[in-house]
Amino acid sequence: MTDGERILGFGDMGANGMAIPLSKAVLYTALGGLQPYHCLPVMLDVGSAVVIVSGLMTASRVTQKKISQNSYLFYGGGGASIGIARLLVQAIMEEGFSEDEAKSRIFIMDSKGLIVTSRELSSAKSEFARSDYPQIDSLLEAIRLIRPSVLIGASGQSGAFTRDILRELSTIHKTPIIFVLSNQSNLGECTSQMAYKATEWRCIFVSGSSSEPVRTPDDRLLKPSQGNNCYVFPSLVNALSLAVIRPLTYKLLLTTAKKLSELVTDDDIRQGSMYPSIARLPTITKEVSCAIMEQAYKDKIAFFTPEPYNKMEFIESYYYDHRYINFTPDQYVW
């Protein structure tokens, strides 16, 4: 628990950051079916690692590359980037690589440039410090040297991904993956329109804030994804509370990311979206919760007994219906 001083895209909000957990409590009920009187908003500066890694898994379906076959450059060295990078390491390790091999695919830049071992660093940043690369201050120079297939912005620096940077990415990779995660669209490193145009409409684009649909020169309508953690938090809280799961492991987080990615349809992808339609969220929440429970019982960290035979029925039996009852009296035609 913290005092709300490192909220992604907003920075130090102090007690004003309480609006975020309050709104999340509403989402837990509306999307996850949790009983509202079981929800207690608590101030936590948590990142969105699960939903971002899930989006990267979906992007892999487009590029026909495994997660481990990409190189990742994070622009912004705060808690969000570190959290995503840590879960990404676990995803790469699941494909048969060691922790060091997984970390070798990840690069992080902060306000002072590329994070390298020659710098004085916090313990969190030290996890991803490079000893095999020189100090690089320029993002464009870093892209030319590292040649990342995935560029993730979490700096809150508006316009940091210039046209030259985006074009450089598109010359290195046929389908560059660009995630702009800073909340509030005016803080984004670039807009969806800029990213699509600079990469000749070839990039995969995900943003932290909602983006307007973009019409391509060949009259396709692209609907950029919003990597919103409402895709995963209700599912996690639902499964953890109903099945009494302890502790929350990396394995369960990756299970959540994988299941969410599996629920993205081919139609979603054709429209440029790396996540399912928001309209399907109540159903998606239940399916992801089921997957989390299945894995938790398999790992022997779910303590509700006996284990529910039909986990979907079990979830639905506790599902809170937030719709208002119709109090209009019956009317009869005489």
UniProtKB/TrEMBL annotation:
One Gene Ontology term of the molecular function aspect:
NAD binding
Residues engaged in binding (S)-malate: N183, N228
Per its UniProt entry, which superkingdom is the organism in? Eukaryota
Q: Which Pfam families match?
A: Malic_M
GO BP field: malate metabolic process
Q: What is this protein called?
A: Uncharacterized protein
Q: What organism is the protein native to?
A: Schistosoma margrebowiei
